[in-house]
Amino acid sequence: MIAKQKYLALSGGIGGAKLVLGLSHVLAPEQLSVVANTGDDFQHFGLTVCPDIDTLMYTLSGLGNKELGWGREDESWNFMAACTELGMDTWFRLGDRDLALHLYRTQRLADGAKLTQITAELCERLGIRVRVIPMSDMPAPTVVFTDRGELSFQEYFVRYRCSPEIRELEYGGMNAAAMSPLFEQSLHDPALQAVIICPSNPFLSIQPILSLPVVKQTVRKAGKPVIVISPVVAGEALKGPTVKIMQQLHMNSDVQAIAEFYHDIADGLIIDSKDSNHAEAITAMGIRVHSCNIVMHTLEDRIDLAREVLRFSEQLRTQHRQA
Length: 323
Ligand code: FO1
Fold this sequence. Notes:
- By secondary structure, the chain is of the alpha/beta class.
- The protein has one domain: 3-Layer(aba) Sandwich (Rossmann fold).
- 42% of the residues lie in helices and 18% in strands.
- The chain contains 13 helices and 14 strands.
- Strand 3 and strand 4 form a beta hairpin.
- Helix 1 packs across helix 13.
- The site of ligand FO1 has 19 residues, from helix 2 and helix 6.
């Protein structure tokens, strides 16, 4: 392990957090920073909820609910039960322990603290040494235009369980949010070896990050390999509605379509061995391909994939130097 080498992962919640956990096992904490999507953030019961930041923090701290993939293990739901008694909205569930995190964040925001600072404080208190960075300190909500009209992200995702048909997605809201200073700083770090795009939903989790003003330009200017891990295996999504959304947006639902989606940013794409028949076509697009098992059921799978990512990034850097 070379202490100085650093990696920056871009991630959504559940799917991305699996790889981030694997990376955290093969890198020293100071080598890994994770930029979290905040397009899913919303106000609920007057609290600021940042689901992807929280999923990353709970996963990295070992406090996460492994079955649900979000929220905390050993959770109780008395608050939700009391909300039901009062006839309040209960479509978005906040566990009793989880509530404390949202209260902390909401209070600190009211004090005038930035989301980046608050996230660092929470990480410290939860014993997380990997750096979790919000993509922006400003609200940048993802809006989903569907056959049932305009929906906020959590309405689409949780309230209606991704059933409305997506026509269009809008990232960032009315006022263009700036990338967070720490995100920008991480891209300028001379020790940065690669940018890793986790196998999160490209439309709901990664595009909100890449759509922020100047993010793509800054990533390209950094001149470091950008590696995408496919969220699709043999035409099926690793998690959630990725394939359904690809179909609704009239795309093919295979790894080639993933390569096309990321073609202006990706140097390399990691696909599952089951998809290696697509490797030639993707290489012809100017994207290097590495195939291996990318399905992560166990912690060992996460660690193995993390090792593959680091090996592939080394290969890309060597090829880059030779070119
Ligand atoms: N997902 C659900 O499917 N139902 C919920 O009630 C729910 C509550 C929730 C509370 C806090 C939190 O951090 C995440 C929560 N999630 C819930 C997950 C979340 O909505 C999504 O997984 C992400 O936004 C997509 O990455």
